[in-house]
Specification:
By secondary structure, the protein is an alpha+beta fold. The chain is built from four helices and six strands. It comes from Vitis vinifera (Grape).
Length: 135
């Protein structure tokens, strides 16, 4: 199992390297216009996301940083949509850091100079920006 996760992580990192240039270009364009910028996105074990800073290395290893792939997925009009019913670990640049555990996606983002944050379950739709996410 551990090896499987390591391989999945390596594949996700490789995918993120491929996305990097376009993701950064999109992010910079959004920054210039006060559009949607993902400042932090983490995917993985629900416990690890809801109890950050517990100092538990095992929990910390059960999350993956997905800030870059989400910036890549922001469209030109400054929106991001992840469809309902689609497992997020299948998104390019993501991986499943904890097979068999319930997972969530935590996203911090800025839009129009304001800060927002949202947590969604693995198969839940994510549509941002939304006023209700205001931090």
């Amino acid at each position: 199992m551990f090896l499987q996760v390591q391989e999945a992580r390596a594949a996700a990192e490789k995918a993120q390297q491929l996305l990097q240039n376009v993701a950064n270009r999109k992010r910079n364009r959004q920054l210039e216009t006060g559009g949607l910028v993902i400042t932090k996105a983490v995917y993985g074990n629900r416990k690890a996301l809801n109890e950050p800073g517990e100092g538990d290395d095992q929990l910390a290893s059960q999350v993956v940083d997905v800030t870059l792939p989400l910036n890549f997925l922001v469209n030109d009009s400054g929106q991001l949509k992840l469809h309902e019913g689609v497992k997020k670990s299948g998104i390019m640049g993501f991986c499943d850091p904890c097979p068999g555990e319930p997972k969530q996606l935590y996203v911090e983002y800025t839009y129009g100079g304001d800060r927002y944050e949202v947590i969604v379950d693995d198969y839940e739709e994510l549509l941002i920006p939304q006023r209700s996410h205001r931090a």
